[in-house]
Input
Amino acid sequence: MINIYYGATPNVYKVTVAVEEMGFESTRIAVDIFNGDQFKPEFLKISPNNRIPAIVDTDPAGGGEPVSVAESGAILIYLAEKSGRFLAPGGQERALTLQWIMWQMSAQGPTLGQFGHFRNYAPEKLPYAIERFGKEARRLYALLDKQLADRAFLAGEYSIADMINWPWLLFRDHHGLDLDEFPHLARWFHAIEARPAVQAAMRDATIPPPPTFTDEQRKLLFDQRE
Output
């Protein structure tokens, strides 16, 4: 059983898609990040950086005590190695898969996150920040589009590289970006969207509009000091 610490975020949807694609039994444990669940001691033992997603594998390969993993990239690699699927054992395909996982974690996620913050949530609209992250977000969409111009998936066969990059595009309305401008990316996005396992993973998922925060919620999410 894979326990998924869950909320309606693109990073969490990476994990729910992977778990469904790999055929693991799972349960979802809600973490209310708007009201401080991520700072509870029992959650911090699993996710020291107080972020979702995180998982606990109650039946790890080889037996033994449950295994907890935080950070979505690490989670997907762990699940792929446990299942023996969606991550090549070696060679160019494995290297490319890991490359696009690291790219997502270092470029796509942080850039779109910062763009969404300054565009939708910052109490003061800062044109420089919105323009800077907006241009970079568009560049990253274009880079994915270029990578997909001559291949069906990012690293050869469908892999965890695709699973980790796909969910952030679900939130493209938060960023004012249109898939129609990126035809190869759009084709890839809709091909993954149509997969039965992805549809099952997203059946109860939501793509909420940018929320309005209370002062206390804003402090919890954006003004941490420790």
